[in-house]
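Dear Dr. L.,

I hope this message finds you well. Following up on our conversation about the binding site, I have prepared a predicted three-dimensional model of the protein together with S-adenosylmethionine. For your records, I am including the exact sequence and ligand specification that went into the calculation, followed by the structure tokens. Please feel free to forward this to your student if that is useful.
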Amino acid sequence: MTYAEPIPAPTNAFVPNRYGAMCTEVYDLDKPPGSLPDVDFYVQRLAGLDGPILEAGCGTGRLLIPLLEAGFEVEGFDRSGDMLASCARHCAGRGLSPALRQMSFQDFAYDHDFAAILVPAGTFTLLDDFAEALAVLKRFFDHLRPGGRLMIDLLPLGYLVNERPDIRTWTTPEGDVLRIEGRAVEIDLLRQRRVTHDRYERWRNGRLVESELEVMAFRIWGLKEFELALAAAGFGEISIGADHQPGRRPGRSSRILNFEARRPVQGRG
Ligand SMILES: C[S@@+](CC[C@H](N)C(=O)[O-])C[C@H]1O[C@@H](n2cnc3c(N)ncnc32)[C@H](O)[C@@H]1O
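The resulting structure of the complex is given below.
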């Protein structure tokens, strides 16, 4: 059997999960460094850890910065130049200079290993292809030292079928109104994949002066499915919590699932 040559993507095709300039500006207004309840959870969970921590998809430094300020040795990478630039600015303003690199989950590489790798805020669901996500779990495994910990927070399966539009506004320090209107445009139950169109707008004196479209593609995991995926990548000691509450088990109303696993001391070769 022969296969047709792949059709080249048109040059103006939308790149999913881009996290461009307006998305970054809104992220910073909505979730500045130190915001969200996961910060205390990570500080407590990582207490006493000996060795460097990697935040994969560190974005604006929302979590990375408070971890640095709590005395942890943290570095980060992200694919978005806008998110990383914001992170670097926030760090410089606080006298911090962590190693930040522009890389993607699919091809990140370090010449040293880590005592822990963190993927908070549902970011892992932005890997919208099953095989690619499994390969990334293996890449995490290979970058952890024996006994190293992987901590990943996932949106629960219900998010796959959420059709409620996301409409919110923020006011910038300059007085512009930033508005997002996000809508699900595709829900594929077979591939557990969801695509949304997030339209960002900047309004000034009642006029639309700028807009940006972010196409967001997610793959949402079942709880047991992700546990099996972690095991398939070689991880052991897998535990699952919920909502960053110590000891809380996942339940019907959980908003975020907190997976933790270890690279065994005697690991996959
Ligand atoms: C929801 S934000 C989370 C940022 C930060 N970790 C936090 O907790 O606030 C997701 C981040 O993942 C990054 N990202 C998305 N896809 C990526 C990929 N394939 N490789 C690396 N980073 C990616 C985005 O640029 C964005 O900064």
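In brief: Residues 17, 19, 31, 55, 57-59, 62-63, 78-80, 83, 104-106, 120-121, 123, 126 surround S-adenosylmethionine (CB under 6 Å).

With kind regards,
A. P.
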